[in-house]
Amino acid sequence: MNIKKIIAVLIVSISFQTIVAQKEGYWDKERATKREIVVAARDRIVIKTEELPVGTTEVVYRITFLDENQQMANSLVSVLKSIPDPTGISQGSAGAVFLLSKISGEDKCKYAIFSNEALAAEYKKSGTTLKACYDQNIPISKDAKGLSADRSLCILPNANAMWFGFESKNWIMNQKIVLEVVPWVNTRLASGWNLENRKLMLNQCKTTDLAKKIIPADDFCVCVLDKLQKEYTFQEFQKLLPIEKSKVYNDLGNACLTGISASDKIYSDLRTQASQLVQQSKYGEAIDKIGVIVLYGKAKASDFNLLGYSYLMTKQYSKAIKSLKDGERMDESDLLLQMNLAHSYLLNDNFKMAKAIHKKYQFQNVTTSLSWTQKVQQDFDTFQKAGLPTEDFKRVLRLLGD
Fold it and tell me: Is the peptide bond before 216 cis (omega within 30 degrees of 0)?
């Protein structure tokens, strides 16, 4: 391959890499910092950068120390125009730092970087750099570096700025400091949905009334968060009033529980929890769990059976009958459901309807090894211990003995 073809291939390759890089993020030149400040001899000052854009994952900065006769190379922003991506796809921030400046002069200065204003204020007062996220403690005449969020504590989640502290080492003359900082913004993270903010939203979701009925609500809240990220940036959502946020959680929660994308595991967990609660005689809590399944149209005949039994055990016989009839329409062959329906009629003073069901199924088994009559006797023992009315129990047992 001749030299012209090699150059052509390289140009195409670099162009493609640049396009890919631009999709992933951009240098935010609009919110770059460029400050020129004069520092008195032996003095300390602090310079706050412009507000860092949401989604900042890297910054490149250049510091120069000048007197009135010294000259500086082109601005940092102009250098970075030819370096689109700090992630390593192209030359990256390492390339940016390499190309940054050529400066003459011998003035020197020490500096440190802080991630919050309080630490910077303490530095200005005492000169301590123990809590600095970066400390250049050897006096230099110029510096240029790149900082990345995954390797430096100077760029923290939700941080809105950086603070540069300078200490002049010129004991006689004032110094001129030129500070330039340009942030790289990750396009995906620019919505504000970083790890810390996603954790915050998941925890808030778990405090909602609907989520409390689904505990553990991990799958449910992950579904809500996924929909939330598609409709709002983090900043937009945070600006909503509390009542508006509550409505958003409710609407998205409803969508998760009724939509095609709703996880079957959510309902499977609810069924498991409801069954465990019934075994613990916590019928009211079981009703809440199954009620969510029924409300969102995901109930099976077995769900209506468990709901009806829970109503029966809490002496809500009319509700028990209604729930069991709903289940019967889905599967009339479920004999455990039919038995609970007979119990509900009996306890609701309708012996005639209870008798009809008992006579219809008395010679069948409700499971592979348990007869209808044996199950009735077990249930009556349970009802008697629970304090339910027992007046008609003997009539039913006599009926089944005929």
Answer: yes
DSSP state of 301: H
29/141 Cα distance (integer angstroms)? 25
Q: In this structure, which amino acid lies at residue 42?
A: R
Q: pLDDT by residue (tens digit) across 90-116?
A: 445 555 444 444 443 456 788 999 999
pLDDT, position 296? 85
pLDDT at 85: 56
Q: Contacts for 216-223 with beta carbons within 8 Å, 24 or more apart?
A: 216/269, 219/263, 219/265, 219/266, 219/269, 220/253, 220/256, 220/257, 220/263, 220/266, 223/256, 223/261, 223/262, 223/263, 223/266
Secondary structure element (H or E) that encloses residue 242, with its range: helix 242-258
Residue 82 has pLDDT above 60, yes or no: no
Hunting for tokens 């008697």 — which residue is that? 384
Q: Quick check: helix, strand or coil at residue 89?
A: coil
Q: Write phi, then psi, for 182 (nearest 5 degrees).
A: -125, 125
pLDDT digits (tens, 9 = 90+) for 208-226: 888 887 777 888 899 899 9
Angle at alpha carbon of residue 394, lines to 392 and 399, rounded to 5°? 100
Strand extents, DSSP E, 44-108: 44-48, 56-66
Instruction: Report the percent of the chain where pLDDT is more than 70.
Output: 81
Rounded CA separation 74/373 (Å): 95
For the chain, domains (ranges, CATH) are 3-189 (2.60.120.680), 192-258 (no CATH), 264-401 (1.25.40.10)
Query: For position 117, what pLDDT does the model report?
Result: 92
What are the structure tokens assigned to 3, written together?
């030299």
